[in-house]
Amino acid sequence: MSAHDDLRGLGRALRLTARRLRVQALAWILPLWLGMASFAPAYQDAYFSESGGAGDAGGASGNAVVEALRASPGTRLLYGELPDPGTIGQLVQWEGGTYLLVCTALMAVLLTCRLLRADEDEGLTELLRDTGTGRWVPFLAPVLVIWAAIGVLAILAGGTLAAEAQEIEGLGQAGGWALAGVTAVVGWGFSGLAAVVCQLARSAAGARPLALACVGMAFMLRVAADQWEVTWLRWLTPLGWRDLVAPYTDDDPVPLAVCTAICGALVAIAGTLYAHREYADGYLPDRATSGRRWRIHGYADLLTRLSTRTTLAWVAAITCFSALFGSMTEGILT
């Protein structure tokens, strides 16, 4: 079979996938874009405006805030190290950039699992293949559309920050586009990672929590890289790529090129797994059934046993986040 036959119907599949995804993509993109656009004006009004103190007073207020944020272990854990000297741009990429990158990672993971694996579980992929499309179309169309959605978010964020740089001192245009590049590669990286997970798992129900766990592991690696000051560890986590590019500080384009190549390699690995995987199957062991025998005493006992793992996972997550934000509040108040 020729390459043309393998890609037959790709254009129509791309249009169909984009049409199906438009509401979900906009539901992610618009709030993230508007939220990112509000950070720089908020910082300027709160800490760096002349109304907060003319001349040196405004600078002293800003410096005091920067030092307070650096002294809080909770903020360092959540956002990483705040670069010197703490300009508006550095604060934007430090706090706002963290929220943007984490939410972009979640968007990429959830949309990829939806289109790559849930469609297969529901028979939509089989229906698409029955129309005569090539064998690579059900894999490439979702990946390309999701990458395009992530690119739109990155362009909107970068363009907005570049426009705000004309009115806000300390918010350079190069830094805004550097942060946009980081947003793109982080989203593409997690999309590629989720695509690999979708080939390994046997269903969307198995792929989704595993892919979300990868986001959590990436965050933990980024925290470890900050705490131990190990630069090479940041290459192993997409959430650490921002510190390699350093928007509003170095604006280094070389890590962006390397990270883009890593994203492409992840998609290539996922494609290789896809080419050798049976339809509606996966590489991980099947744990849908168990040979264990339970002594069940009614419906409530069965429901409790089935929901124990999920409940413990939520309790652990809520406890960790409560401790994290509690330490942030304590550090800021003191």
- Order of SSEs, N→C? HHHHHHHHHHHH
Separate helix tally: 12
Regarding quaternary structure, what we see is single chain
Q: Any idea how many domains?
A: 2
Shape designation:
globular
Which secondary-structure class do the elements indicate? mainly alpha
Number of DSSP-assigned strands: 0
In short:
The chain is mostly helical. It has twelve helices and no strands.
Key terms:
334 residues, mainly alpha, 2 domains, 12 helices, 75% helix
List the helices and strands and how they pair.
Blueprint: H1 3-6, H2 10-48, H3 56-71, H4 73-79, H5 88-121, H6 124-130, H7 137-164, H8 173-200, H9 204-228, H10 241-245, H11 254-275, H12 299-333
What does this molecule look like?
By secondary structure, the protein is mainly alpha-helical. It folds into 2 domains: 3-289, no CATH class; 298-334. Helices cover 75% and strands 0% of the residues. It has 12 helices and no strands. Helix 4 packs across helix 12 (299-333), helix 5 packs antiparallel against helix 7 and helix 7 (137-164) runs antiparallel to helix 8. The relative contact order is 0.12.
